[in-house]
C-alpha cells in the first residue's frame, strides 16, 4: 500500500517570504501561509508595525486577505482560515493567545449528500499536489470576521464565521464565539452560549459591571 505525503505544494510559503507583507519592527516566528487554489503573486497576510506573528494562515480558495494591525500578537499554534473575498480583519494591539482558531466558513456543506464527496476531493488533491482544487465551495457558507482594536482572545478559543468582536473585549480561554461580542466586555464559553461576566475599563478609564446574562447560540448557517 502506498502512502502519499505532501509536505509542500505550489501555494505553500514556509516563513512568509512570498505572501507576507510586514511593517517596521514586526517579528515573524514560525509562520506558515498556505494558498491552496490559484495562488497569486501578492501579499495574502498584511501585518502592521511592531507586531509579533506566529501560526498558520490558510486561504482555502485563493481569495481574500488577512490583515493584522500595529502592535498585535498572534500566538503559536494559532490557525486562521480565510475562504471569502472580504477576508479576516484583526485590529491594532490585539492579543490572540496560543492555539486560537479563526475560521470564516463552515468548511463543509451542511447537506450530507454534498459533503460526502469532500474526503475524496481532499485525497485527490493530495495525490495530485493540488490541495483544495477539487472541492466544491458552492454550498459552503462563509462570512468575514472582524476583531477590533485591543481585543484579547484566550488560548484554545475558536472564532467562527461572521463574528465581530468589539474593541477592548476579552474572550476567555476555550470559548467558542458564534455571535458578535460587544465592546469592553468579558465573555466566556458555557454549554448554552457565551456568558457576559463584566465590563472592563474603557478608553475613559471607567469600570462598569453588568449582571451575568447569556448570549444564546443560534443557528448561523
From TrEMBL:
Origin species: Nitratireductor aquibiodomus RA22
Family in the record: Belongs to the transferase hexapeptide repeat family.
Any one annotated GO CC term: cytosol
GO molecular function terms listed in the Swiss-Prot or TrEMBL record: O-acyltransferase activity
Record has Transferase as a keyword: yes
PROSITE patterns: HEXAPEP_TRANSFERASES
Official protein name in the record: Galactoside O-acetyltransferase
Organism superkingdom: Bacteria
CDD domains in UniProt: LbH_MAT_like
This protein's record includes keyword Lyase: no
Sequence intervals crossing the membrane: none
Gene3D superfamilies: Hexapeptide repeat proteins
Taxonomic placement: Bacteria, Pseudomonadati, Pseudomonadota, Alphaproteobacteria, Hyphomicrobiales
Alphabetical UniProt keywords: Acyltransferase, Repeat, Transferase
